[in-house]
Amino acid sequence: MSELSVRQIRRRFLILHGLRWLPTGLLMPVVILLMQERGLTLTQIGLAAAAQGVVVLALELPTGGFADALGRRPVLVAASVVGLVSMGLLVLADSFVLLTAVWALQGVFRALDSGPLESWYVDSTLAVDPDAAYEKGLGQGGTVLGLSIAAGALLSGGLVALGPLGPVSALTTPVLAAVGLQGVSLLALLALLVERRPARGPGALWASVRAAPRMVGEAFGLLRRSRVLLALVAVELFWGFGMVTFESLLPIRLAEVAGAADRAAALLGPASTIAWLASAAGAAATPLLVRWLGAAPGAALLRIVQGGTVVGMALLAGPVGVLIAFFVCYAVHGASNPLHMGLLHRQVDGPYRTSVISVNSMVAMPAGALGGVLLGFIGDRAGVSTAMLVGAVALAVAAPLYLPAWRAGRRSASADNQPKRTEVSENVSV
């Protein structure tokens, strides 16, 4: 990477990162409504979407080995191709089986895509300047992600508002645009991401596949060694289950109060843009929450508040009330994630850090899949509002799981003020 400067590497990373999330922003406001338009019930939508969670759960850790063995570029190219195929199939899919295949391919895409671009950026930057502050680029990447999704959602709403294009329904036009942008992302990836290929080859790839069960076992073994860590990961179970309310059920709830799916999709474009900006604002407010309340109490309070916002989405009448609750929900969501991840990072040291983060991410997937199926079933039988209320309870009841982290933090602070003595730490260290 000597031919590129640190600034050039960062610029390429940000461009590729933005292009990766722009198609996602286009799809977010319409994909659930599109599946409903094509005849799926809420239960079927939940089952189809669950395929993504199952695939990501199976591939999350092994695909990290693929990137290490083969290089980041080929894995990212493979991910982009799979994503392109998935979006292309979504344009045409009109049955439960085909739409399940779309979500399964999205799971492959998510698993392959998770991590290699960020790793390429960090490693390439350090190869040029071992003392470079790569954190700046990672922080800018978070900003680019939010802006890209917001821009994609705004464009999606505009395309839906234009109405059908010949035989293409209004809800399908953003998908066509996402296909085009995914193609642009693939071309940009081929042009901009340059790396020195690792010396390891297929043998190392096969070794990483064989080692995957051991890696999973060791990562989960860490949870048995720390009650604090186990409780924090358990939060992710309830969080993943409850997120179905504002990621999947909100569009259907909005269609109820707006009177039509097309109108709801047109509203969701700009609304999603505002929601992601609110999320960014919430994330920016986390230092204040830590200063005022502390990380663990602040995180617990936000779980309860987010449950309350979902109650608002379920019960408020009219699009305005539902969308205001939606915006507040995303602001809380943006503030919650940094607090949760900060608490998680403080519970583990050494080379298992990435494994623990992967486990935290992995448990949210089956929880989200279960939430999609169960809440979809409740929605079909008892109404979307009832399903959202169940999800709201799941979000709020996770709050007490932050108590072990709060107690551990108080003990640590107390120990810092006492003469040093030998203690047994709950942190996982190696």
Keywords:
430 residues; Growth Hormone, Chain: A; mainly alpha
Summarize the model shown.
The chain is mainly α and 430 residues long. Helix content is 81%, strand content 0%.
List the SSEs and their pairings:
Blueprint (H helix, E strand, L loop, with lengths): L5 H22 L3 H7 L4 H29 L1 H21 L3 H18 L2 H13 L6 H28 L10 H20 L9 H23 L2 H16 L1 H15 L2 H24 L1 H7 L2 H21 L2 H28 L7 H30 L1 H13 L6 H14 L14
Helix pairs in contact: 1-6, 1-7, 1-8, 3-4, 3-5, 3-9, 3-16, 4-5, 4-6, 4-8, 7-12, 9-16, 10-16, 10-17, 10-18, 11-12, 11-15, 11-16, 11-17, 12-15, 14-15, 14-17, 14-18, 16-17
Structural write-up:
- The protein is an all-alpha fold and about 425 residues long.
- The protein folds into two domains: about 210 residues, Up-down Bundle (Growth Hormone, Chain: A); about 190 residues, MFS general substrate transporter like domains (Growth Hormone, Chain: A, Up-down Bundle).
- The protein contains 18 helices and no strands.
- Helix 11 packs antiparallel against helix 15.
- It is globular.
- The C terminus is likely disordered.
Please name the fourth-level CATH homologous superfamily of the largest domain. Answer: MFS general substrate transporter like domains
Strand content: under 5%
Give the helix level as a range of percent: over 70%
Please write the string of helix (H) and strand (E) elements.
HHHHHHHHHHHHHHHHHH
Mean pLDDT: 83
Low-pLDDT sequence parts: 420-430
Total number of helical segments? 18
Q: Major sheet: size, sense and barrel closure?
A: none
Distance from N terminus to C terminus (CA atoms, Å) equals 32 Å
> Based on the structure given, which CATH architecture of the largest domain is correct?
Up-down Bundle
Round the Cα radius of gyration to an integer and report it.
Answer: 22 Å
